[in-house]
Each structure stands twice: as structure tokens, then as C-alpha cells.
């Protein structure tokens, strides 16, 4: 093999920060995709200069498809964001703990998700999209456009009794969009701090909020257990929502989203952040809350816990369809941008009393393997120039802030220093991604870090002492009775019908073609994780030494290439050290007993604003 020079660009501290060119051997396959050229990106704390991106291209300037994605047969859209048209409505739907293998558009027939699939096939399937390994850091990254190491949110989640939150010095996505004339609403989970009122959603850019402040709750009684504490966690703005007791959380949030859309003045652009708690597990006494009729619909699944999880995903998928239909009824859909994303990889059975699947990816939630950080995501909009394809553009959750700000008519160059990159043109016109690397996280408390640059990924250290570093199913492809993929249900779903009405129709050929392209294939040994490459002398043991993978040819992270490409490994290790020098310390604080809900009428509240009453 020839040893060509590989240009490694660091985006970990934020922007296009070109490092030295190193001469390294090619990866072991000739199928390595072309790397994206350096491009203008937003600036970070370490490089404050922020190039101003060009205006959105006109239809005549649309470039032909690049190797960054794989197109289906959908006709190009003629709608584009421009200064002349009304600002688009933006709906961001965030799922909680949804696994890579828990959506139909990634190839599994086990859990039907017709509404999500319809949006994915008629929009963009984001197949090279990354989130962080756990909840709070991802939400912080989404709201700020910054890596968690730059906001102090990089170590574990924010607990209800912690006297901290996302730093008030940060300007959040809804605050930026309000400056563009948007009416900003949040429905669902917050999980970015509530110990004082000023940390809560309606003090940080949102005009209204219905949902919990902490990381999880029971879907029926809406209480959150964080041992030894327990209390109600459901709010209307700042008021406890006792009246919603007994109503299923997913339905509550769906109905509130429908109400917000129904009451909205469509001449004003809407930003709706719908952050479902589903399918996160509930409290220990009812870990997978679901309606019995939904569980019965999935009796084809052998594992009972997995059936309950599937029922939760089913209700989540219905919610997506209802929200899309609500936009159609108000004639808002043709001028909408809809994003769907998970917040992290799924927790497999036995982890967090849940039953998700990231098959065939390695790892689970709270790990830095692909199964923990490669997110199920999609982007749908009639404003996309080239919809109906599998996007291979490298993307990180931090990129949504500048990308949506651009779609809203803002200038990302005017934003403060962030780590996110404006990818609107890359996604819309199928151009090479401006992003060339992703920092998955650096957590010095746990001693773990991971970074992807081009096709190379370094993983060092392991959470849970490596006990969740394997591959976990189910695959959904080898069940005794496997249901057939129902294309008709996708096309006929609420989202499928609404997409047709909005000018992004689906065809069976498009569905089958994109579904095949979106499924991760780990090669002839797919499903065999017992061979010498994962158990022999060269196998990855990240607690002992850093591991190196070519995730372009080995997305399942089976072949540790650290010994074969030591120069690449050492270069990435130095890059990790460099970016870690820009980190701020984790902001975690000891739990404050004053937060105990028993002091506050058995509710989780702003305990920092009051004196104890009992």
C-alpha cells in the first residue's frame, strides 16, 4: 500500500484548526471515502475568528451529488431558504435513550416506526451523525453549540439534588432564535438545571414549558426517584402540574405540542423543542411504563422487556406523526424544518433497567463506542434541495445550533465562539461536510476519551470498568417469527401522507433502496464478535492501552489497528491532549439535602431560591 499524506483537521476545540500533515499508511481497505476539503467553520474559544458563510445557494448553483451521501430517487426540491421567503418553522424532536437499531429505517423489522421512517425516507437519513454518550451533555451541546468540555457538562448527568445547571453565561439556541423573531416553546424534558428559577426553560429563552426538569420520571404518576429522594417532576412553566397525574407522559407532551401548533400565529416563525422522555426507563417500581394495548401489538418479540420497550417506541412514533399532521392542518408544514434525534445510544437490556438495541454497533449508552455516540437522526424539510437520500456528511449535535440559525435566516458568523459548524448547505445540497472531526468526549474523572478524525477513531479508557464494551442485541433479524417490513404502513402513516401533501412523496422503490443503504453492514462476519480480532493479542483493551479503529470500514469497532498504524495513533493522542488543554473543569457538585422533595410538598423545585419549610 502507498503511504499518502493524510491531512488531519481538528474541530475538537471548535473550528477549522489545521494541524500538521502527517504521512501515514492507508487504511487496510481501498474503500476509504474521499475526505472533505477544509471549509469555513464557526470559531471556538481557541480560535475566535469566525468566517462569514456564503448566502444560501440559488437553485442554479446546486452542486451535483458528492460522495458524502447516497441518493435515492426522490425528485429535487425547488424550495430554498432565502431572505425573500418567510422564516421557516423549526420543530426539533428529541428522543431519550433510543437505540440505533430501534427504528425501521436502519433495517430492523422488530419495532415498526412508520412515521419516523416516512420522514427519514422523504428527507435525510443522518447516517454519520453523532451525539454524546449521555443525556445532559447532549442537551447542553444542542442548546449551546459547544462541546461539553467547554461548558463543564462533560462528566455524567445532572442530578436533581445538584445545586448547578448549564452556566448562565451561555446564550442558548432559543435565545438566538428569539433574536430572529421566533416564538420559542419547549414541551418535555429539560435536564439542564432547575435549582434556581433562572436556570429553568422559561428564563432561558423559551416562552412556555410543560414537562419535567430532571432526567426521568414515571410516565403515569410523573414522580422522579433519585435515591433516597422522591417527588413530583412535572411542571407548567414554574407551577407543579398535579392535575396531569395518571396521564401517560408521551401523550401529554404530544397533546401539548398539538395545542402549541394549533394556537400559533402562523405568520410568526415557531421554534418548538419537543423533548420526549420516551423511551427512557421510568422509576424502579415500573421501569418500562407502557399501555397494555401497545405491548400486545408487539407480541412477536420474544423478550417481554423488549416488548414493553417497543410499546414505548410505538407511542413515540405515533407522537411524531401527530405533530407532523398538526403542522399540515395549520398549513405550516410546507415551510417547516423538522429534526428528529436521539440524545445518546440506547441502553441495552440490563443497563438502566431498559431494553434498547444498538446492533450491530458496539457499546451502549454512557460508553464512547459507536453504539453509545452514533445517533439515530433525520432531517426533513421541503426546503431541502436534494431530499430522499442517506446522508454521509459527518455531523455532531453541536452543529444544530449554527445550522438551524442559518436556516432561520441568521448569520452564523455573528454567533459567539462555539464548536458547532453550519452544515445547512452541505445537508441541503449534498455537499462535502465542513466538519472533518468529532470529539466524542473527554471525561478525566472516568479517565475516558474518544475522537474521530476522518475515518480514524481513537478510544482510550472505559466506563463501568469495561463491562459494557461488547456488542448487544437483539438484532431483530433472527427472531423465530420475523415480521415483514410494511412499506404500505410507512407511506400511509400520518407523516407519510403529510409528506406527500407537502410535496415530498414516497415510493416503494425509494423506501426499499434507502433502507438498504442506511443499514450498517459490518462485513461477512456481521454478528460474529468472538473471533481472534476481538479476543486475540491485538484485541482492543482500552483500560490498558488506547485503541484505533477505521470506522469507515469497521463501524462495529472489531479490528484494533493501533499496532498497525502507530503514527496515526500517536497523532490522535496528541490531538486529544491539545483539545483537553481547552477544557473547563467539570461542574458537578455534591447533592444538597435541601433539594429533598419532602421539604417542598413532595415536588422537585428551585430549592436554591427558598428556605426549608420542614
UniProtKB/TrEMBL annotation:
<feature type="compositionally biased region" description="Pro residues">
    <location>
        <begin position="48"/>
        <end position="67"/>
    </location>
</feature>
<feature type="compositionally biased region" description="Pro residues">
    <location>
        <begin position="25"/>
        <end position="37"/>
    </location>
</feature>
<feature type="region of interest" description="Disordered">
    <location>
        <begin position="20"/>
        <end position="84"/>
    </location>
</feature>
<comment type="similarity">
    <text>Belongs to the sulfatase family.</text>
</comment>
<feature type="domain" description="Sulfatase N-terminal">
    <location>
        <begin position="88"/>
        <end position="409"/>
    </location>
</feature>
<feature type="compositionally biased region" description="Low complexity">
    <location>
        <begin position="38"/>
        <end position="47"/>
    </location>
</feature>
<dbReference type="InterPro" id="IPR017850">
    <property type="entry name" value="Alkaline_phosphatase_core_sf"/>
</dbReference>
<dbReference type="GO" id="GO:0008484">
    <property type="term" value="F:sulfuric ester hydrolase activity"/>
</dbReference>
<dbReference type="Pfam" id="PF00884">
    <property type="entry name" value="Sulfatase"/>
</dbReference>
<feature type="signal peptide">
    <location>
        <begin position="1"/>
        <end position="18"/>
    </location>
</feature>
<keyword id="KW-0732">Signal</keyword>
<protein>
    <recommendedName>
        <fullName>Sulfatase N-terminal domain-containing protein</fullName>
    </recommendedName>
</protein>
<dbReference type="InterPro" id="IPR024607">
    <property type="entry name" value="Sulfatase_CS"/>
</dbReference>
<dbReference type="InterPro" id="IPR000917">
    <property type="entry name" value="Sulfatase_N"/>
</dbReference>
<keyword id="KW-0325">Glycoprotein</keyword>
<feature type="compositionally biased region" description="Basic and acidic residues">
    <location>
        <begin position="593"/>
        <end position="602"/>
    </location>
</feature>
<dbReference type="GO" id="GO:0046872">
    <property type="term" value="F:metal ion binding"/>
</dbReference>
<keyword id="KW-0378">Hydrolase</keyword>
<feature type="compositionally biased region" description="Low complexity">
    <location>
        <begin position="68"/>
        <end position="84"/>
    </location>
</feature>
<dbReference type="InterPro" id="IPR047115">
    <property type="entry name" value="ARSB"/>
</dbReference>
<keyword id="KW-0479">Metal-binding</keyword>
<feature type="region of interest" description="Disordered">
    <location>
        <begin position="591"/>
        <end position="614"/>
    </location>
</feature>
<keyword id="KW-0106">Calcium</keyword>
Amino acid at each position: 500500500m502507498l503511504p499518502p499524506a493524510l491531512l488531519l483537521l481538528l474541530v475538537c476545540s471548535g473550528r477549522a484548526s489545521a494541524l500538521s500533515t502527517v504521512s501515514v499508511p492507508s487504511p487496510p481497505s481501498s474503500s476509504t471515502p474521499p475526505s472533505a476539503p477544509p471549509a469555513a467553520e464557526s470559531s471556538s474559544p481557541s480560535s475566535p475568528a469566525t468566517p462569514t458563510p456564503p448566502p444560501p445557494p440559488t437553485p442554479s448553483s446546486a452542486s451535483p451529488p458528492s460522495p458524502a451521501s447516497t441518493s435515492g430517487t426522490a425528485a429535487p426540491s425547488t424550495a430554498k431558504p432565502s431572505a425573500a421567503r418567510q422564516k421557516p418553522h423549526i420543530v426539533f424532536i428529541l428522543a431519550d435513550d433510543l437505540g440505533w437499531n430501534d427504528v425501521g429505517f436502519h433495517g430492523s423489522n422488530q419495532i415498526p416506526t412508520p412515521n419516523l421512517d416516512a420522514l427519514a425516507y422523504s428527507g435525510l437519513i443522518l447516517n454519520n451523525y453523532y451525539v454524546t454518550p449521555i443525556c445532559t451533555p447532549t442537551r447542553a451541546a444542542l442548546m449551546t453549540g459547544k462541546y461539553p468540555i467547554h461548558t463543564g457538562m462533560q462528566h455524567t448527568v445532572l442530578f436533581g439534588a445538584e445545586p448547578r445547571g448549564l452556566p448562565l453565561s451561555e446564550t442558548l439556541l432559543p435565545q438566538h432564535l428569539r433574536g430572529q423573531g421566533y416564538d420559542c416553546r419547549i414541551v418535555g424534558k429539560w435536564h439542564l438545571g432547575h435549582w434556581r428559577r433562572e436556570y429553568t426553560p422559561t428564563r432561558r429563552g423559551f416562552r412556555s414549558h410543560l414537562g419535567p426538569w430532571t432526567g426521568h420520571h414515571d410516565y403515569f404518576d410523573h414522580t422522579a426517584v433519585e435515591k433516597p429522594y422522591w417527588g413530583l417532576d412535572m411542571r407548567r412553566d414554574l407551577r407543579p402540574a398535579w392535575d396531569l397525574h395518571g396521564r401517560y407522559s408521551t401523550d401529554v407532551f404530544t397533546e401539548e405540542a398539538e395545542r402549541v401548533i394549533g394556537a400559533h400565529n402562523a405568520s410568526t416563525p415557531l421554534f418548538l423543542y419537543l423533548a420526549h422522555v420516551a423511551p427512557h426507563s421510568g422509576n424502579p417500581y415500573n421501569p418500562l411504563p407502557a399501555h397494555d394495548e401497545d405491548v400486545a401489538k408487539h407480541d412477536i418479540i420474544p423478550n417481554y422487556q423488549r416488548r414493553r420497550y417497543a410499546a414505548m417506541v410505538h407511542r413515540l412514533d405515533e407522537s411524531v406523526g401527530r405533530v407532523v399532521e398538526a403542522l399540515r392542518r395549520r398549513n405550516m408544514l410546507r415551510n417547516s424544518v423538522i429534526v428528529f434525534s436521539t440524545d445518546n445510544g440506547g441502553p441495552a437490556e440490563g443497563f438502566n433497567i431498559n431494553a434498547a438495541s444498538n446492533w450491530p454497533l458496539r457499546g451502549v449508552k454512557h460508553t464512547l463506542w459507536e453504539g453509545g455516540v452514533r445517533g439515530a437522526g433525520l432531517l426533513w424539510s421541503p426546503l431541502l434541495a436534494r431530499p430522499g437520500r442517506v446522508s454521509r456528511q459527518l455531523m455532531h449535535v453541536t452543529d444544530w445550533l449554527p445550522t438551524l440559525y442559518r436556516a432561520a435566516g441568521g448569520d452564523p458568523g455573528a454567533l459567539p465562539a462555539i464548536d458547532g459548524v453550519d452544515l445547512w448547505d452541505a445537508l441541503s445540497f449534498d455537499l462535502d461536510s465542513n466538519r472533518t472531526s468529532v470529539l466524542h468526549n473527554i471525561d478525566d474523572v472516568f479517565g475516558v476519551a474518544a475522537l474521530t478524525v476522518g475515518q480514524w477513531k481513537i478510544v482510550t479508557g472505559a466506563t463501568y470498568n469495561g463491562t459494557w464494551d461488547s456488542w448487544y442485541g437483539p438484532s431483530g433479524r433472527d427472531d423465530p417469527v420475523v415480521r415483514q417490513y410494511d412499506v404500505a404502513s410507512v407511506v400511509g402513516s400520518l407523516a407519510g401522507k403529510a409528506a406527500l401533501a407537502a410535496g415530498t412523496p414516497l415510493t416503494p422503490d425509494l423506501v426499499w433502496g434507502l433502507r438498504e443503504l442506511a443499514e450498517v453492514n459490518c462485513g461477512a462476519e456481521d454478528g460474529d464478535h468472538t473471533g481472534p480480532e476481538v479476543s486475540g493479542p491485538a484485541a482492543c483493551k482500552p483500560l490498558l492501552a488506547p485503541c484505533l479503529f477505521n470506522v469507515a470500514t469497521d463501524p462495529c469497532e472489531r479490528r484494533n489497528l493501533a499496532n498497525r498504524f502507530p503514527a496515526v495513533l500517536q497523532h490522535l493522542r496528541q490531538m486529544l491532549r491539545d483539545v483537553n488543554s481547552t477544557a473547563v473543569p467539570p461542574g458537578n457538585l455534591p447533592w444538597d439535602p435541601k433539594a429533598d422533595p419532602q421539604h417542598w410538598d413532595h415536588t422537585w423545585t428551585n430549592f436554591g431560591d427558598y428556605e426549608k419549610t420542614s
